[in-house]
Amino acid sequence: MKKVIFSFLFFISICTIAQTARKYSNEFLNIGVDARSLGMSNAVVALTGDVNSGYWNPSGLLSLEDNQASFMHAAYFANIANYDYLAFAMPIDEKSAVGFSLIRFGVDDILDTTSLVDADGNIDYTRINLFSAADYAFTFSYARTTGIEGLRFGANAKVIRRVIGDFASSWGFGFDAGLQYTHKQWQFGAMVRDITTSFNAWSVEEFEVGDLNGDGIPDEDQIPQLRDQELPETTEITIPKLQFGAARSFELNSKFSLQTELDMIVRFVETNDVISTSAMSATPAFGFELDYNKLVFLRGGVGNFQNIRQFDDSEEIGFQPNFGVGFQYKGITIDYALTDIGDQSAAIYSNVFSVKLDWSIFR
């Protein structure tokens, strides 16, 4: 067990070596899943304990008592982009559990006008095609208990597929690792995404400069601004991201209970997070969940504290408040989250719905 903990801390320590990597890569994997968690501003790394733990902290899969499945759909940018998530998890025995998940973030029915002009220079609208720009992530999760009471660990192996019509595509892979520790009413958690850094290799379709009509003859005289364009880089490295936090459960009375969690989300690169240096940046997140008789749930949270530059070149701190409700009955859970209430930050916001099914409903 000491070797496991040492390895976990070692991988955290090497995160600072990846300063040459891009600040933002595979960002669709940082949006989050599950309306319950989004309603709590993603502050769930210690509390998570269901099928969605495969995303937030695979250690939480050990809290499963039966097989579970989950589905979520959200629309962003006035329904231009669709975000979908599907997951399944099951306990293997008292000491281990596994999970599988699929995430897709895509913009569909984009107009392809590269062949709009025919070989004679005429505009032909029948030559317009449609394509999609979509990102996919396939994740396998595994969790296991340790010899230390209350301590458990988990890991993810993920395959990433990104497609931009017939123009470009990539394959990538990466690993995540997480820990959870429970002591009485307190829960602690840590999750490192892309712990060994994640790698994407792109294949980009080459086009002749200025050859918009596809006749093989460059039209450089007509479109001089394209002469100096170069193909983008064909490899991407996603640097690690650390999220850790502490949670506390309160039994208010026989029918009401409250769960709260405070997290810190750390990137090992300089960004506009409220805490930022040349080596790292961090932003806090806080969430709570109040439930009545484990039947009805009220959730809220605040996070994503950013230094936002204004038009007059000054900076103000923006934040993202979230709100959510849920209902659970006989193994069926329906959750709703409203993110970025009042547009208090520059982040995207949406109405999010998710459904979770416990296999107990089939017995």
TrEMBL record:
Q: Which residues form the Type IX secretion system protein PorV domain?
A: 26-181
Q: Which Pfam families match?
A: PorV
Q: Which residues form the signal peptide?
A: 1-18
Keyword set for this entry? Signal
InterPro entries, A to Z: PorV (IPR045741)
Q: State the name under which the record lists this protein.
A: Type IX secretion system protein PorV domain-containing protein
